[in-house]
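Bug #77: duplicate submission created two jobs. Keeping one. Sequence:
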Amino acid sequence: MKIITTSGTKALKIIPRTFFAGTINLKLTNESTGGVVNTTATASTDKNFMSFTGTFGTLVEGEFYNLEVLLSGATIYKDKVFCTDQTIDQTNNNYYSVNSGEYNTENSFDNDYIIL
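Kept job's structure:
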């Protein structure tokens, strides 16, 4: 699964069924709405990977997409994509949070209470 942001260009590295250097077609399908975003990108081979940069326009935060990489109408790669603008870095324990920005937690450690 790939994690991308909601806007801008996305640089991806994949291991496709067929390696190709040149213009490829990218198809991104929203899993919940079925909306399709089509675009083209220029691919290059990078050792055992194929890398490309695609511009998908504006995507929806917190949505899953199905990515298909097409070469002359044939699918050479499929993957699931999750779209978020949150900073995700597992080495620093920054994980995705569904509740990000929804509520504030209290970080005080006093357990005092008042009885009237």
